[in-house]
Structure formats: C-alpha cells, structure tokens
Amino acid sequence: MSDREGTAVPLLAARDLVKAHGRTRALCGASVELHAGEILAVTGTSGSGKSTLLHCLAGIVRPDAGSVTYGGERFDQLPEKRLSELRRTEFGVVFQFGQLIPELTALDNVALPLLLAGTRRQDAQATAGEWLERFGVRGQEDLRPGELSGGQAQRVALARALITGPKVVFADEPTGALDSLASEQVMTALVHTARESGTAVLLITHDAQVAAYADREVRLSDGIVAPLEVTA
C-alpha cells in the first residue's frame, strides 16, 4: 500500500481522544486516521481501549476530550439526531456476537436498516436476499439467529451492516467468537465486499491473523495509539 500520509484528507480522524469510564481512563490521547476505501486494523490486548475507540469514532459515545472529524466535519459535536442519521445511512457496525434481533428471521434482520429508512417491505426483502446470497447464506432466509451457526450469523450481521452502502464499516472483534474456518469465511467475505464497494473498514481485533487482512495496523496500548505498522 502506498504511503497516504500527507497525500489525502482522511475520511475519519480522531485527535487526542480522552475517554474515561468512571475512574478508569480507556483512552489517554489516542489519535488515528482512516482513509476512504482503506481497511485499518486496530490491535491491542484486552482492556487497551480498542472498543472505546471504535465507539467514539462511530458516534456511539462522545469523548471527554479531543476531536473526531468525518468528511472534514467535526463529528463529535453534532446533535444526536444528526449522529443517528449518519449511523443509519453512512456507517455500518458489526459486533463480536452479531447482535442480531432474535425474534426476526435472517432475511428481516438484513432488511431492517432499509425498512427503518422507509423502503417498501417487498423491496427491502428482495435486496436483503441478494445480500444474503453475496455472503453465502442464501437458503437461510427463514431461520432465526438461534438456528444459525456462529459463522452464518456473523455473515448475516455483515450483510445487515453493508446493505445501506455505508462509507465506513466498524467491525468490533467480528471473528472473536468463531473457529478458524468460520473466521476465514467471514473475513474473506468482508474484505471482498469492502474492496468491491470502496467501503472503508475499521477493524478491531486481538488476532494477528485477522489483522493481516488489513492495509494498515495500529496498536492501542494504555489508551494511546502506537506508531503505524504496514501490514500489506
């Protein structure tokens, strides 16, 4: 990968983020950049602040100090209504355990973001079926999350995160609960789709094999981002 520093304005950037949970500081001046179309892995040990960093960058929580910009706009100071809109339309989020809605079928879980955006149910389900096929889980449309394998459920979660055509996908330990084969299937599907659509991915992981799928890797230690390491 070519050196992007100084050659392009980042799509998403954090500067000197500080965030505390009670008396515990999760972030202590963390700074990181994500460029359009880039896959960035954030690694670090458990408790190093990786998930907190993701939550700040995705607008799920607000930092106590520092700044987050998205598309050149000061993101962390936007009103909650605007943040919610961005999370629905331009961001996709995948968590370790998928967080699918257990009462809904795989098809309706994937269609949900489109339905919330006002798409007709028939059209939303048709598009959801196409995304399930893209992620190799066609034929599982009527199954509920409890009836899916871990790998299938996570690919359904990826389809749900990507169905709106987001500019950024935040993936928080997306393979942490999977075996090696399912992990490879999930990461292959995520990377292929991100490359195809030009979607940027912020990947939180403690697994070096998962981080190897990224263009770049940064390491978070004691709430601070270490110097960049080129991995691809």
TrEMBL record:
Signal peptide region: none
A single GO molecular function term of this UniProt record: ATP binding
PANTHER family in the cross-refs: ABC TRANSPORTER RELATED (PTHR24220:SF685), IMPORT ATP-BINDING PROTEIN (PTHR24220)
Name of the molecule in the record: ABC transporter ATP-binding protein
InterPro entries cross-referenced by the UniProt entry: AAA+_ATPase, ABC_transporter-like_ATP-bd, ABC_transporter-like_CS, ABC_transpr_LolD-like, MacB-like_ATP-bd, P-loop_NTPase
Record keywords, A-Z: ATP-binding, Nucleotide-binding, Transport
SUPFAM superfamilies, alphabetized: P-loop containing nucleoside triphosphate hydrolases (SSF52540)
Domain (ABC transporter) ranges: 12-232
UniProt organism field: Streptomyces shaanxiensis
PROSITE patterns documented for this protein: ABC_TRANSPORTER_1, ABC_TRANSPORTER_2
